[in-house]
## 1
Amino acid sequence: MHIFIIRRLLQLIPVIIGVTLVAFLIIQLIPGDAAQVMAGEAASEEQLEQVRENLGLNEPLYVQYGLFLADLAQFDLGESVRTGQPVMELVAPRFWITLELAFWGLVVAVSVGLFLGILAANKQNSFRDFGTMAAAVIGLSMPNFWLGLMLMYVFANQLGWLPTSGWGDWQQIFLPAITMGTAGAAIIARMTRSAMLEVIGEDYVRTARAKGVKERFVIYKHALRNALIPVVTVIGLQFGYFLSGAVLTESVFSINGLGRLVVDAIAQRDFPVVQGTVIVLALTFVFVNFVVDVLYRVLNKRIELN
Amino acid sequence: MGSTVNQSPEREEFAKPESRFKSLLKRMIRNKSSLIGACILIFFLLIAAFAPFLMTHDPNSTDVLNDFQGPSSENWFGTDHNGRDIFSRIIYGTHLTLYVGTVSVAVGAVFGIVLGLLAGYYGRILDSIIMRVADVLLAFPGILLALAIVSALGPSLNNVIIALAIYNIPVFARITRGSVLEVKDVEYIQAVRALGAKDAKILFQHLLPNVSSPIIVQASLQVATSILSAAGLSFLGLGVQPPTPEWGAMLNSGRSYMWDNPHLTLFPGIALVLVVLGFNMLGDGLRDALDPRSKK
């Protein structure tokens, strides 16, 4: 197990380096003079030189990347071109908001997804099964930002039950969490259903039934436990998608998280902020995937035995 | 050897390339999900093809005196903040949505398939390099990579396609490589190799057809994802620019007036859901139809 974790950690190194390289290269993708784009059309030659100096754009590419990495190693993501504030100061407080949002989205996705998946698997090919799976594929096909707008219109504007936007109050959690969690719930429901159906067909479940174990007990104690193993992987992946889904959800509900930050930074052509946010989100995703891999390993003892 | 008696009729039929396509088509029709998905997509393809005849108004002609009209017999889906006919704008926008989704997947798939074939077939260092790069690109969750690329290239339809194509490459590379590893050592491929076939011929004529099923399924699901991502980018103002009637952009401009005029955001959203649903159902159905385990 320790060897597995160490090996998996070592595998992370090239990915982390690659992620920083891709984020670094974003500025190189800007057509024309990057400094001009960031400083604006009206910038004087001095201001342009200042931007180039600050970002090290006068250095050769590999030196730039080396400096970028050296700063990164000290948790320095550079400074905003607009305000001069360290990017880290902008990112850190918003990171927690986005993480919190993703967490609530995950709560919705997992609870609704598991519930519907079990419901469907319990009575395969019934109307209930068909209805649940139809709802799942529709949930999967809905753009989350549109769902957010519709929820906002119905529950905030028409019914007045919940606040339209913002973050901080507990009432403000519901709509963004449902917006984020719906597609995930759909994926988890489908995954749970197929995993349950596979397990229900196994010998030990049949044995349990034959022994006269109560049906509910069979489902929860025997079937669900084993069915959950592949579901864990999906849940981990979903968390990653919530991090990127936050970009749209935060925009819909005016939540001041990383997603809003990156969208505003793009609008202001503030590339150090864009780079910093992208790196933080991607590395969080990499880390979550690592944790999920290890968890999967722990849960699935069969893999270890082989 | 030369006697024709040994050749059973089934064998002959199996050798015909179209019989495979026919059997796929048959299984697709039997599968309700793919059938419904295909019908939805044909519906939207027809809308896109005959858009000029279906539009009741010029999608870009503004009529300020007639703004924010609710759905009526004159404007079926109502009018927007500039008095433009929403029904006509959705009809016109159909081809944009289908175009972005399919082209970005097609481009991403071509590059991804070639890289996946090379990685899977040659293995070793080439495999390591290609797959590590794919790992890195896949480390950016969801639309984050596309967002980063478009932020640098600038907002436009073509840049969205470029960004989504790049986002699609590692997905196809990974799935192709995995399938190649499964089939590259089967006797049939070994036999072709022993006969002295060139690598390019083995790769594209023999390996590719044998790994095409999962790729086709993935392509359909990936178009759905790409359409959602493209609409999301337009919604953030990073994709197709107004006044072009792209559905995501329509949602973005409509949301400011949504409180009193929900029809501005309702109809483009429903159109999006339906198209994406079509690709998702087609993909799901194809997966079931192509999965050898589910064959009856």
## 2
Amino acid sequence: MSARALLPSLAALLLAALLVAVTLLLLGVSPTRAATGLLDGAFGSPLAITDTLVKATPLIFCGLAVALAFEGALWNIGADGQLIAGAVAAGGIGPRLASWPHPLAVSALLLVGALGGGAWGWIAGWLRARRNVSEVISTIMLNYSAAQILAWAVHGPLIEASRAFPESSAIAASARLQLYFAPSRLNLGMALAAVLSGLAYLYLYRSAWGFALRAIGRSPRAATFHGLATTRVIITTLVLSGALAGLGGAVQVTAITHRLYEAFSPGWGYEAIAVALVARLNPLAIVPSAIFFGALDNGAQAMQRAAGVSAVLVQVIEALVIIILLAFDSAAGRRLGRGLLSPATPDSAEVDA
Amino acid sequence: MLVARGICKRFGRTVALDRVDFHAAPGEIHALIGENGAGKSTLVSILAGRLAPDAGTITGADGPLRITPGTAHGVAAVFQAPLLFEQMSWEENLALGGFRRSTRLRPEALAAAARAAHDLGFALPVPGRRVADLAVGERVRLAILRALSFAPRVLLLDEPTGALAPAEVEQFLDHLGRLRRDGRAVVLVTHRLGEALTVADRITVLRRGRKVAEVPAAATNERDLATLMVGELPPPLAASTYEGAPAVLLSLADLMLEKDGRRLLDGVTMEVRRGEIVGVAGVEGNGQDALIAILAGLAAPTAGRLLTRGALALIPQDRDLDGLILEMPLWENLLLLEPLRRRFAPRYWLRRRDAVEFCRALLARYAIRAGGPHDPAAALSGGNRQRLAVARALATQPEIVVAHDIARGLDLAATRELHRQLRQYAESGRAVLLLSSDLEEIFQLCSRSYLMSRGRLRPLGPADRQAGRFGLMLSGAQG
């Protein structure tokens, strides 16, 4: 996995920026003003920078979850549900940990979150490996299930003591990840995410399991022929993938929200697919990719204020990046991208003269 | 009529074609021969409009050709790896050919296809089968039928006979003669010199991207052509010299395999002993895949016994789909084989440096032309991919090597080199089981051989060498 593989992503980014700039010009808006506003909101002050990182954190966890599964051609669309499952597990036991020492309580919370997400991933993995149910369908449906379970929980069993608001009781103080950089909300979750991206890289490219996973992803037929494509690899991968997303949910609970409520995830699990694709599934590149998406989310309001452009524009940018990237991946786009970015390399069929 | 002048084509730093002139004239069979990597397939792809040349012109009967894939210019091609709609049934694939332009194959079109198949002596596959499930030979036959269905003025055939049975080849070549009489132009890529000499009117020899000769077939012979193609040929193989105890290493006893109510293997019994190369001849689709699946441990026999003494390594028939993962680097491709995986990933981590070094040494030892262990397998030419697959299988010194159709698409020199390696391996006191549809290969290399037909195995004796009778049986036309 070389840095070169990321060139199409950068090209897509620049092209998307260019297209948006042209559109803004046509609308009579200064693109520089919009860009300055966006950058200012995302990186203009120490607080803006840390908030960008905070927004990027769940995207890293979910992005890693997506990348891991996608490398094995397991199309896990369920990071959102897995994140929610992890958050529900963490938010559920959080209020009961008051008597626990701080490090233990936080660890327990994170562990439970990972288990919750892992369990959610396991369902899809088991269905795929044992019953040949497409993981695309099962994970999407499990997203809805998770969201409904969360809604039910905060209206029912987990509702806070006064029973006035549809949200869970706050988790115990001992189980909260301390904000060492207050007033910034920056927390150790970001560090954990960065460490995990390194571990995910080692897992994928240096471990025997990662090798099997990549072999399955690139050629299920050859992997089967050589006895690599086992149900164990499929299930383990979706459990690990779910655990990563679940961990992201738990970090969000312990560091930021301290409680559960209905619209807990704004769709991180879906945005993470974009994050992972832009990173070309390379775990190390997930971190900058997530920060890029986090910055767009974070700078959107400032851009709206500065340039009078609707904050929704950032979603247009995100979508454009993905569409352009996919266009690069299509046959014609690949040829174009190849011509633009690197000398021609022969297709396998063509060399076989 | 198709005239190509000064065709150049490069892939990165590799020059595939260097100022090549070529023409296909009506009423003429023009054979294109050359070693692996000589540029034959590239030239066919360019003539067919699948690739654009970097330089040069192609002129058709109606003037210069704009490169458009498809059959607009009356050109139809059968590529070495047939281009078919994998997820559709074979009938649908024919329907998208010229028999009838429709997504559904009408009865009359199917009848036309059946007539064409009959003319060619081809058996049609089981109705309704997906192309992805067809064996190599069936796919090639299908691609040929599809190409003929367009009634092309120019027919390009890239190594069509490699996957056909001898009896089929004969009938197929006869049919080419009929096309010639109809005034059509036929371009036949082949590495079988005898075939080129018997059927073609004109022979063009390519060598490393250059045209080295264009001669009337009547004015040349096998020896001259071989010299033009490769320079000097290595000497033919001598008999095996293993003299140790002939202990049985692999024994199959009354093996049965049934799947979806079909009997794929029917009482297969054989033994392979130390120092032997045992051959299994037969047309693809007669149970070879089932036998391989059982030997690979991918399927359990319905009944019967399989005994192996010592490790068994497989060289699969389809190196690109089963054998290798083209996107992965060479050193990782080595790890696909279980013994090497155990060696270089004994527990949790890959022993990357060791594996890369091992790969480097293997590339050097087997003279595999590659940039290095980190090159993706896709960067290798077909012959070098096959060399890698063989090197990988022999690398762990297994007691038994099972080789399935390993010479497919390889030229003379590369084939002989592979044969020499297998022979040497057997002589070192191990055993080789060779499955092949090429009779010459079986008789040349094997100490004993069997014929596989409709899931059954029977021993072949010297009398079976009478090619005519044998060919008939081989194609399954007779019990």
